Amino acid sequence: TTQGHAGRAPPKFGAAAMSGGRAKMKKVNWGQPITDYRIVIPRDYYFAGETVQGTLELKTHGPISCRGVRVKLEGVGMCHWHYYEGSGDNRRRVDVHGEKKYNGCQKTAWGSTYNTGRIDNAGDDAVWGHPTTPDEGHVDMPLQTARGSKVVLRVMDYDWGTKDDELGECLLDVDELLSMNSADVTAPLWRHAGKGVFSSGAYGPAEGNALRGVKPRSVVVLSCEPSESEGGFGFQQGARRVVFKIKSAHNLRDADGMMGDVFRGYNDVYCQLYEVSGENLVPGLPLPGPPDANVVRLPPTRASIPFSFKLPRNLPSSMEPLDVFAAPVDRASVRYCIYSHIDIAWRMDPSCRRIISVINGPSSTIPKLLAPLKSVPQEKEVHPVKCESLCFCCSKDCVGRLCGENTSVSLGKVFLDCHMDRQGYAPGETMFLSGIARNETDRPVTVYVSLVRTFVYTAKEGFTHKTRTARGEIPLASFEVPAHSTWQLEDGQLICPAIASDYFGGYGYDEEFARQNAQYGARYSERQVDPVKWSTKLRVLMDVPDTPFNLKQFMDVLITGLPGNPIVWEEYQQKRKGAAQMPALPGAQEMTPRRSGDDIGVSVLGTAECPTWTPGAEDEQVRGDTLCIARTDEIVAADPQEDIKCDPAELTYSPAVAVYKPDAPRKCRSPYKPDNPEVDCTMNPPGSMMICPYTGMPFVVPPPPSPQAQVISTVAAPSMSMV
Questions:
Q1: Considering only CA atoms, which of 292, 231, 298 is closest in space to residue 32?
Q2: pTM of whole model > 0.70?
Q3: How far apart are alpha carbons 434 and 592 in whole angstroms?
């Protein structure tokens, strides 16, 4: 499965794997005249960097007094566990919890004002468009007029528990902005002098805090363009939608400070926009305020309200650790959703939620991941178990752990040396393993190849952090090396299993994202500790029976989310073939994954045979190759606090993983020439007729041969099994 847990059903592929559509609501109306309220998106999986587009379907049969309809993209990583301390009457349970928000961009679908995202601790200068929230400054706004529209933009300082402070405002002529073809415009801000009850009522230019005796003018930088969305509330003939892109606001006054500059505050800045109409709408004159949010009524309607969110490139993939990987914790996940609620003052907000899967990870052929992986050769002399006459724990259970080895007797040596062709692999790609395993003992030994995945959970207790670690194994292959023989493998083929891309915090190998983030500076949420991190190693284990040790070699691989670019991959293969190889013994053994017919299998833990997949509606064409979507079992993702009006059984989703299916040519041999040359029969399935390009004669395409191990330089052919 995606998380690599044993004993569970394998992933599903193709169109049949869709998880059953949207989350349905119970027949409950929250005490409001709501008939239908749901989120509709074209699919439930997205790649980091994509834009999630959908509609909010809302049907009401009466007016609702509310402040607006909000929609939010939420991404949260969390872990939770508990332990007990003390004894007797003093025994108590201690719960520790770790949480980090990877995205929390909220937008207004309908309301008296349309707001940007809020930038906490922005200070004097606020800059929207941070790489972690790329569209936080975008406002998709419906207008009730087809031409001559006027919009007021206010820069605000958010204050919890009190009325927000106005930092400045300006009047925007929408037609004039649209005529500038999305060019940035710098608009000066105006405001009433003073603050709160100390306001003098005088209206004039907004200015920042004095710098060297001079107060700089407050400004906002923005652009405007037509919206690609359609629909919304109250649309009449000629109405339109536009997108305001707020870039930055500069030289803002300190709205939270006291006693001048003695106690400085930090503005939490956002912008609100609302349409106005009437006469005397001139820059420099007082502008009408927004409608009172407490008296705004959502009219009876049946509307499809469009929304869109740009996913940041640094998001970790959706993760639901299961079984052995989740053993140390009560619960843990990295989960994303689209969440919407109707904001009603002093009432429970009607809400709906849609879970989505996010797939992330760099391409497997970026330069840093193409370096070959090598391990330190290991050699060990094998000694028999030294068992005392009165020891009852020997044989299978002891194997020398308690009694030790009899070093005076040597059974021979064992040697292991392996390496991989590169570091990065995407699910479904071929992993090339090369190595030598030498067995000089008089007993056969077994070599196991597997992926070892490590999860690190971090939670906060008081002012300290606690961690727990879980490790699990995903078997890939095993083979036997007979006594007094040497086994060699050159470019043995393994298939990378369908597991989520690695995430170990930070920006990984995305250097461009790291560069952009450095320009903006880290946000507060980025400085929080990741509650769930996971990494992968490839392990080659030589198991010497009835001895107290094994030879182990670990290589740090990176499971990526996307396959490599075919052009880069071809150049890499040509370069690798021309490079110096490890000293080779005569011949080599081919280790090929099991296949079913002509379909390429995906190695999945817990199944004896690799499943095959049929291209369906979910498959994406990526540069001529097929990218398929594999899924795990459904996960119940209902939030017991937020989703009390939803049926938990219907708020489920199946985490998705992109699996690469290479569009490689298939070869077969012509029967008409003495040397039976290979011909390309990719477009001719087994059993069909094709024309031999050498003789022009037709022949029946034979079925592909069964993969067989070829063994050289060993006394007997080692048996090999693929998991």
A1: 298
A2: yes
A3: 13
